[in-house]
Amino acid sequence: MLSNMMKIPMNLKLSTGRKFRPSKEFLSHVTNRLSTSKMIRLLLKLRSMPPTRANRTAKLLSMYK
User: Fold this and answer.
1) Is residue 6 one of the residues assigned to a domain?
2) HEC per residue, 4-62
3) 18-63: per-residue pLDDT in tens?
């Protein structure tokens, strides 16, 4: 599982230039459930979203804890 987490970039810049930093718990939780490729696709999707939508998605994702 740790090797999976290493592949995930920790600081993703959002389209506005702000950084999206997922918390460690969030990342480990998500990596437990999603494959790495799905996770990276998800983070890339987050990165290309406008900030409010990205924040909403991040909130949504954190509800899966």
Assistant:
1) no
2) HHHCCCCCEECCCCCEECCCHHHHHHHHHHCCHHHHHHHHHHHHHCCHHHHHHHHHHHH
3) 565 666 676 666 666 666 677 677 777 777 767 677 677 777 776 6
Helix (H, G, I), strand (E, B) or coil at 11: coil
Per the structure block, which two tokens stand in for 22?
Answer: 């997922």
Judge whether 16 lies within some domain: no
Number of structural domains in the chain: 1
The structure's pTM equals 0.30
- Tell me the residue range of the domain where 43 lies: 27-58
Q: Which amino acid is at 17?
A: G
